[in-house]
Amino acid sequence: MLFVDTKVEVTYKNGGVRMERIPNAVYTKEFREEAVRMVIEHNLSAYEVAQNLSIPKSTITYWVREARKGRLSLVGSTKKTLSETEMELARVKRELAQVKMERDFLKKASAYFAKESHPGTR
Fold first, then answer.
1. Cβ distance 55 to 21 under 8 Å?
2. Contact, 64 vs 40, CB < 8 A?
3. Separation between Cα atoms, residue 64 and residue 29, nearest integer Å
4. Which candidate, 5, 2, 69, places its Cα nearest to that of 29?
5. Where are the domains of the chain?
6. What pLDDT shows up at residue 102?
7. For residue 16, what are the β-bridge partners?
8. Distance between CA atoms of 49 and 77, rounded to whole angstroms?
9. pLDDT by residue (tens digit) across 86-120?
10. In whole angstroms, how large is the CA radius of gyration of the chain?
11. Could you tell me the pTM of the whole model?
């Protein structure tokens, strides 16, 4: 199963982490077909597929509608596909965002447990 990374940015607000999609992401034909297959053949909802793939539900709904009309191959034909370098960069950015979230979680967890193990201090 071939999946292309969606473009993701991570922002830190009020001590939390929020991942945001970059608009106008470009998806490969195989990625669109697999997403549609998940909805049609595997009986997943568009919402579930969108959550799993980190793309908008409306995009999945549009792809499914076009696939049922037999026009899925025309979707995105006017957009440039991602090069190998761009795909690798997107993958590395997503991996970095994941590592940053894990690091921040571990920092907060260690501070919490350090406070719990020494109840008389601070």
1. yes
2. yes
3. 13
4. 2
5. 8-117
6. 93
7. 13
8. 22
9. 878 888 998 999 999 999 999 999 988 888 777 66
10. 19
11. 0.46
- End-to-end CA, the chain: 52
Q: What is the pLDDT of residues 60-85, one digit of tens each?
A: 999 898 888 887 877 766 666 667 88
Q: The tokens of 50 are what?
A: 């969108």
CB 90 within 8 A of CB 1: no
Residues 6 or more apart from 31 whose CB is under 8 A from it? 2, 3, 4
CA distance linking residue 75 with residue 32, whole number of Å: 9
The DSSP result for the chain, as a single string, is ----PPPEEEEEETTEEEEEEPSS----HHHHHHHHHHHHTS---HHHHHHHHTS-HHHHHHHHHHHHTT-GGGTTTTSPPPPHHHHHHHHHHHHHHHHHHHHHHHHHHHHHHHHHH-TT--
Query: What pLDDT score does 105 carry?
Result: 92
Say if residues 21 and 6 touch (Cβ distance below 8 Å).
yes
CA–CA separation, 41 vs 43, rounded Å?
Answer: 6
Angle between helices 29-40 and 57-68 (to 10 degrees): 80
The pair of structure tokens assigned to 38 is: 């998940």
Structure tokens at 83: 């090069």
Structure tokens at 60: 């999945």
